[in-house]
């Protein structure tokens, strides 16, 4: 070639345009990768994974990924039953098959649409294998069980902590969509019709989108699982100064404000604090929001009541956030338990003699609940448990040993509730 020959323009191998309907499936694949490989929370991965998608497609991507996570062990058993060689856990072909199968077997997508929108995800790869396995399974009448299998590691841990009945109840709980619970600012507040577990509580099944429900615009209620409403109920009613130490998105801050406390709400994350501000603005509940790390910050004087709804593994909210089933491994639980112990000890000094401290986590791990309480009581002899009084809790809850432990199976006939550990402590008067 002569030196005067023009250089060839670079060749760009562009991916052919996706057929309609593929973009949300591609986003679902990114979501699964974020949760299963990178250990990210599904909600946190959503903005990046669904960038460029319109609202309904974003909702579809989220629904496919969440349902895949609810059904993962059963989907994988089906896939393994139809492949000669076991596909690696993180193989794209496995994830593509999970997404195609969950749509057809759980979400009602016709098989031809499910596979046509998923095959482009494995372009340049094992399309034939994915097509073949999907076809063999759907033609062979594959089904998913009514009660999903739990991931083996979680089942083993909860079996050791709580026994087989709780494991079985947890599996039943992920099979059905949880109800929508609302906490009312006052018992007579404008709110949708529904079941009621307390005067200021409504439970809705098959609810319309939240923003369309009566009272949303007026801000007379907020979404809050009934178990999540218990910690602030144990703080009781004001007046007085209350500190909500880990506050966003603010369900408990709003309860405390509605109960007439002068509330300071502390939150480390600016983006979560922004949601707290939005929620307070919508419900017109007053609170002073401080963005700070509770490990650096301190109140100017001790408070009458302190709520520590501590950061945790969040395994108690697996019904709404099935990604926790895959992210909450022993290392995370140990890290969270260490942070909880530090926050709990620090908070102990900020309650006036005779004041109340409520400690709570939405965790099903004893390390984040019962063990924290035991350690705290041994280290702080000036604190004692104050058990709930009769009538203080909504219908169906009871406190053995003075504290509350809600588990899969609690309130099951009424639609269940999140898993929580909650204890109210009183500091001895000086
Ligand atoms: C379980 S959530 C709180 C839920 C909230 N109480 C509610 O009812 O809506 C825990 C919160 O604590 C915040 N957090 C974690 N570590 C913190 C710290 N060191 N200081 C202050 N807030 C913290 C997290 O960002 C998270 O928003």
From TrEMBL:
* UniProt record, GO biological process: methylation
Q: Where does S-adenosyl-L-methionine bind?
A: 246-252, 267, 293, 309
GO MF, one term, reads: methyltransferase activity
Which branch of life, at top level? Bacteria
- InterPro entries xref list: MeTrfase_RsmB-F_NOP2_cat, MeTrfase_RsmB-F_NOP2_dom, NusB-like_sf, NusB_RsmB_TIM44, RCMT, RsmB/NOL1/NOP2-like_CS, SAM-dependent_MTases_sf
The active site of this protein is located at 362 (nucleophile)
- What is the name listed in the Swiss-Prot or TrEMBL entry for this protein? SAM-dependent methyltransferase
The record lists the organism as Sphingomonas olei
């Amino acid at each position: 070639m002569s030196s005067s020959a023009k250089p060839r323009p670079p060749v760009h191998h562009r991916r052919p345009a996706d057929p309609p309907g593929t973009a949300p499936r591609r986003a679902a694949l990114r979501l699964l990768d974020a949760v299963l490989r990178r250990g990210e929370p599904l909600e946190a991965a959503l903005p990046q994974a669904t960038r460029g998608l319109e609202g309904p497609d974003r909702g579809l991507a989220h629904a496919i990924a969440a349902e895949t996570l609810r059904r993962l062990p059963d989907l994988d058993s089906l896939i393994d039953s139809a492949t000669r060689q076991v596909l690696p856990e993180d193989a794209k072909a496995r994830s593509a098959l999970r997404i195609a199968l969950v749509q057809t077997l759980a979400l009602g997508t016709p098989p031809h649409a499910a596979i046509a929108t998923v095959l482009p995800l494995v372009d340049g790869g094992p399309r034939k294998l994915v097509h073949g396995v999907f076809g063999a399974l759907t033609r062979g009448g594959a089904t998913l069980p009514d009660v999903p299998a739990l991931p083996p590691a979680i089942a083993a841990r909860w079996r050791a902590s709580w026994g087989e009945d709780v494991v079985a109840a947890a599996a039943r709980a992920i099979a059905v969509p949880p109800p929508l619970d609302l906490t009312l600012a006052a018992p007579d507040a404008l709110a949708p019709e529904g079941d009621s577990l307390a005067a200021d509580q409504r439970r809705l099944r098959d609810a319309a989108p939240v923003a369309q429900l009566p009272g949303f615009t007026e801000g007379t209620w907020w979404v809050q699982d009934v178990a999540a409403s218990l910690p602030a109920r144990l703080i009781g009613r004001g007046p007085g100064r209350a500190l909500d130490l880990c506050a966003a998105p603010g369900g408990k801050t709003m309860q405390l404000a509605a109960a007439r406390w002068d509330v300071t709400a502390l939150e480390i994350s600016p983006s979560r604090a922004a949601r707290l501000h939005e929620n307070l603005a919508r419900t017109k509940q007053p609170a002073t929001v401080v963005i700070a790390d509770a490990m650096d910050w301190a109140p100017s004087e001790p408070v009458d009541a302190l709520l520590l709804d501590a950061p945790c593994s969040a395994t108690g909210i697996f019904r709404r956030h099935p990604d926790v089933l895959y992210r909450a491994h022993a290392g995370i639980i140990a890290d969270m338990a260490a942070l909880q112990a530090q926050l709990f000890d620090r908070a102990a000094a900020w309650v006036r003699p005779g004041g109340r401290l409520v400690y709570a986590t939405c965790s099903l791990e004893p390390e984040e609940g019962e063990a924290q309480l035991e350690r705290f009581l041994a280290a702080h002899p000036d604190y004692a448990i104050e058990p709930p009084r009769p009538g203080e809790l909504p219908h169906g809850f009871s406190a053995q040993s003075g504290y509350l432990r809600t588990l899969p199976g609690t309130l099951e006939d009424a639609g269940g509730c999140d898993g929580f550990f909650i204890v109210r402590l009183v500091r001895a008067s000086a």
